[in-house]
Structure formats: structure tokens, C-alpha cells
TrEMBL record:
Biased composition (Basic and acidic residues): 271-286
Protein's UniProt keywords contain Cell membrane: yes
Protein name according to UniProt: ABC transporter ATP-binding protein
GO molecular function list: ATP binding
Keyword presence, ATP-binding: yes
Species annotation: Streptomyces kunmingensis
Region: Disordered, residue numbers: 263-289
Membrane topology: Peripheral membrane protein
Annotated keywords: ATP-binding, Cell membrane, Membrane, Nucleotide-binding, Transport
Entry similarity comment: Belongs to the ABC transporter superfamily.
Subcellular location per the Swiss-Prot or TrEMBL entry: Cell membrane
Superkingdom of origin organism: Bacteria
Lineage, broadest ranks: Bacteria, Bacillati, Actinomycetota, Actinomycetes, Kitasatosporales
Amino acid sequence: MTTARDTAWLQLRDVRVRFGTADVEPVVSIDELRLEKGEFLGLAGESGAGKTTIGLTILGLTRYAGAQVSGSIRLAGEELLSMPKRRLRQLRGSTMTLVPQNPAAAFNPVLPVGVTVRRALRLHGCTRAEARRRAEAGLERVGLPAAHLARHPHQLSGGQLQRVAIALASALGTRLLIADEPTSSLDVRTQAQICTLLTELRAEHGTAVLFISHDLALLAKLCDRIAVLHRGRVIEDRPAADLVTAPRAERTRQLLAAAPRLGGLPVSGARDGHGEGHDGEDREGADSGCDDGCDGCDDGCDDGCDDGCDDGKNGRDDEEAADGA
Ligand SMILES: Nc1ncnc2c1ncn2[C@@H]1O[C@H](COP(=O)(O)OP(=O)(O)OP(=O)(O)O)[C@@H](O)[C@H]1O
């Protein structure tokens, strides 16, 4: 019999992730983790708890780091762990997008970021003109001038690169955004902007967000639910308001005690500054999630080549590096 427990939109069951042989302790041991369409789930936990590994495993990217993964991860009824690579690549970008912790690593350093963005859009069905239009509109939407598309990754700050990644997710109409510490190194105003963008994505596309952060206060403000990880296990998974007001686990209490603040961050309505250039306001190191939108070329489809005229380079592109090829 099918029960409500079986029908989550994204559902992890008995997921174990090991780096090494079967006898090593898994770095992730998730018995169950669920996310519904349009839901914001915060993933909290101390450094090394396994938050990034979970995000990358959902996207099928830990395999490139040599991880052994078992269990089940189902998205809209499709099993991701046994899915053919080509289908998984289709889903990354069109359906699932990553805003990675280290955005600089997700962009090819020798190409303007606009090339990466347009290629990702073209890989997911846009014509060249449409890709250009959507890339420009997406950048303006995240408060960056479209001219920044001509810049190379090193010419943008970490926060700006993260915004480029979110612009891409928005242009792709992604349904599942995995945002890995997307605001940790940003000033408060830019953090608020990013959070507002995420809530807009939910309103427009029904996007669900897995928001990875140490900052329980921020998660409480933004998320519907928060799951707290400790040593790869979920020790508490409850509605955000309940978890921060009446934590059950000692580790959760410790994380809360370490939280810099509760409240004060305007999550919605903070649109001041959109459409302006924010050049140079944040020189931190974080990075974008183009990892996912950009894959696909390592199996020879190389359909980014015709976009090479944008920068006069040939078909090797960010997707290769991003997909771990
Ligand atoms: N490629 C890898 N090879 C071996 N071990 C790894 C690899 N990637 C992650 N780990 C280990 O897995 C564990 C979880 O790491 P992960 O990056 O997922 O933690 P995290 O909760 O995201 O930490 P942080 O908040 O510091 O980013 C850590 O012990 C880490 O050393």
C-alpha cells in the first residue's frame, strides 16, 4: 500500500556514502530525508558533518570523488542512484541545480562566465538568441549588470559568482536548488538579496531548496524545516520554528548557542539594489553552482561548441570540469 511516507517528491532512504572501501565508516548515513515541492529544507550541522556530501550525492557528483553510495534517492518517482549518466545530466541543470560552496571552482577560469551560462541554457533547449536573452535577464535579476557576463571568473567576487549561479538556476526554472553555504561569506545586504531571490524562485517555479548552512538563525528565518546532521546522521528534523525554539538534541542546542543572531535578516521584500551593479561590494570566496547546469559535454555531445564564437574559443568548456570529467 502506498502511504504518504512513500510519496515525498525528493526522498533519501538508507543512503550511505563512503569514501573508500565497504569496511570504512560511512561519512553519511541517512535513514530518511524528505523534501516536498516548493519546500525549503535547511541542512545544518558542524563542519564535517556531511552536509556538502549529501548535496553532491543527490546530484550524483560524489562519484567523481570516488565515493561509494548505496541506498535510494528518488526524485519525482525516479531513482537517481541507478539512473543512466545521460539522464542524470539532463536533470542536473534543468531540474536540479547546485550553488556550490566554492563557486570559483565551478566556472572554467579561461572562459567568460557568460559562455558557461549560455552553454548551460543551450544544453537545456534554448536557441542561441534565447540563451543570450535569458542570461542577460537573469543577471540583471540578481542585481548584476549584464556586462558582467563578459568577465572571467577571477574578475568577479565569490558573491557575484554565486549570484551568477542563481541567475542560471532561475533562467533554467530549476525545481530543486541545492544551495551550499550560499551566503556564508556575504555581507548582510547581499545575503538578504540571495534569500529573496530564492523565495522568488519558489514563487515562480515551485522550486524546492536544500539550503546548507551553519547558520541556524538564517535557516530558521528562511526554511520550512531544518534537519540537523551530526557525523553524517540526521539527529533532528523538524519544522524550523519548533527546532529553534525547543531543540531536542544537545547538538542542536550547541549549534543554536553558537548562532550569531536570531532574526534581523530581511528575507523578503529586500529588493533594494536589484538591477544595480554591485561591483566590488563583496570580495569573498564562495562559488556558483554551474556544476550542474553545465554538464553534458563529457560524453561527447559537446554542443557547447557553437557557442564558442562568443569568445573565439573552441568547444572545451566548464561543463567538463564541473562534471568531474
Ligand atoms: N572526496 C573526499 N574524500 C574523502 N573524504 C571526504 C571527501 N569529501 C568529504 N569527505 C569527508 O566527508 C566528511 C563530510 O564532509 P562534508 O564536506 O560533507 O562536510 P560538511 O558538513 O559539508 O562540512 P563543512 O561545513 O565544513 O563544509 C568529512 O569528514 C570529510 O573529510
